[in-house]
Amino acid sequence: MNIVTAKEMYDIDHYTIREIGMDGKLLMENAGRAVSEKVKQLAGIGEQIIILIGPGNNGGDGFVIARTLLEEDYCVKTVQVVPDEKVTGDANYHKNLLIKSGGTVTFLESNSTLDKVIAEADLIIDAILGIGVKGKLREPIASIVEKVNHSKATVISVDIPSGLPADEGFGDFVSVQADYTYVIGAAKESAFIPTTAIYYGNWEVVSIGFPKKVIHQFSKRNQWTEQLFKETLPKREKYSHKGNHGKGLVVGGSVGMPGSITMTVQAALKAGAGLITAGTVKENIPIIASKCSESMYLPLPGENGFLTNEGKISLFNYHAIAVGIGVGRANETTELVRDIINQANCPVIIDADGVYHMKATLSEVKRRQAATIITPHPGEMAMLLGTSISEVLASPFSYAQQFAKEFGVHVVLKGKHTIITTPDGKQTVNSTGNQGLAKGGSGDVLTGITLAMVMQHQDIFQSLCNACYLHGKAADMQVDEQNTVYDLLASDVINGIPKVYRTIS
Fold it and tell me: Would you say 313 and 250 are in contact if contact means Cβ atoms under 8 Å apart?
């Protein structure tokens, strides 16, 4: 599934009309009919449907929806909330079609009229404004949106909730709070931003005839889906051996945090790594061994329970290294992280407190030849960028891309919609996971899965996408079959990995 900005969506629309030759009236007809099919799944024949019509293509879609539903004997009232001069072009064509087909259009004359209309509605279809909104809504639309949000009716938005920006980076807006949104053609960027995604309610993309090649031409991002996971997951050769599936090193675990590195090691092995060595302070080794007898162990020097750089680690026998899990933020550990960044000639995954220590080594990170992968949550990303968490949450695509390009790293920006970014700016969004993952240890498990995937002889970007997909899907299957979003533990997610492989690999 492709993800677009408002400009990219306009480019897709214009190219399809001007270069492909598909009439805009036909696209509008397709859009209205596609949304109508979804509305029919929610509305009963006897229920009162109110369609609020604004200017532009969004309003035009609304006229088509009204005509389509009336033809199938639904109770529909079409209310135009802007003056006639605002309804032009293709939208006006479909307005006239509705009238000539026996439909009526009511012009909204006052707030009291709107109160009466909304009060009698079982279902409100929001076809007021589309993706062109910039800034806060003005009157009278702002008051209409407020009344819709206070109604008891089910609210369906066409393409995007009216007033909501299509792009990231906007914090000051007034928007319809939809129960359902049927997105036209391609998902909009704001559906993946924490501050705006909630306004969509349950959403789904409907196809209206844009050629796939045109969408791919103008869209710069996509969502990683089950189909892509199946297509790109490396297959195990019948006569492969443990060396074929990677020899990995996990460096982490202070005396107070043995559980984190234990889960990373377990997850890496469960996800398919051939050999995993846990490099940690010696006090942790018996704890890890009691939980994961399949791992090997490398005792590392420590001071006051934290890892230090006394004595060099041999880094040349590994296919990938994960560092930072449970290391804490002692100053002595920074040099250990710096040494791994400088000396390792294989992919390095930097997670948790390793990201904190990495900030002091960014110039070295930039010079690395092998892949560097960081897996920050928004707070860690804000720390690296020297900005606020709220800024990162409002513009995660831009901030992740900015950092990835500047320092030549792969960024896995974790969240409800985890964003994976390559050093050249390519981005995708993971499609799996649930709120049960908002718990300590989930990131440690993701790091272990990432380590295993990176060693499976495939493109690094695909490895990261598949790691995030597997992590989230394991959590989803556990919640579907055994756990709830309240009691799901990171260890449960590890136990869910085999279920994913059995069902969809």
Answer: no
Gap between the Cα atoms of 473 and 226, Å rounded: 9
Superfamily of domain 227-232+240-504: Ribokinase (3.40.1190.20)
What token pair was written down for 202? 């349950």
150 is in an annotated binding site: no
Q: Name 241's Cβ contacts closer than 8 Å, sequence gap at least 6.
A: 274
Question: Which positions of the chain have pLDDT values less than 70?
Answer: 111, 311
Residue 235, both tokens: 């297959």
Nearest one of 481, 453, 448 to 465, comparing CA atoms: 453
Summarize pLDDT for 358-386 with one digit per residue, the tens. 999 999 999 999 999 999 999 999 999 99
What dihedral do alpha carbons 16, 19, 24, 26 form, nearest 10°? Answer: -70
443 is annotated as contributing to ligand binding: yes
Give me the residue label for tokens 């990261």: 464
- The CATH label, of 3.40.50.10260, 3.90.1180.10, 3.30.190.20, 3.20.20.80, for the domain at 2-219 is 3.40.50.10260
Q: Is 134 flagged in the annotation as binding?
A: yes
Q: Is 291 within 8 Å of 263 (Cβ atoms)?
A: no
- Annotated binding-site residue? 345: no
Q: How far is CA 248 from each of CA 270, 336, 405, rounded to the nearest angstrom?
A: 13, 17, 26
Is 162 flagged in the annotation as binding? yes
Question: Known binder of ligand: residue 44?
Answer: no
pTM equals 0.94
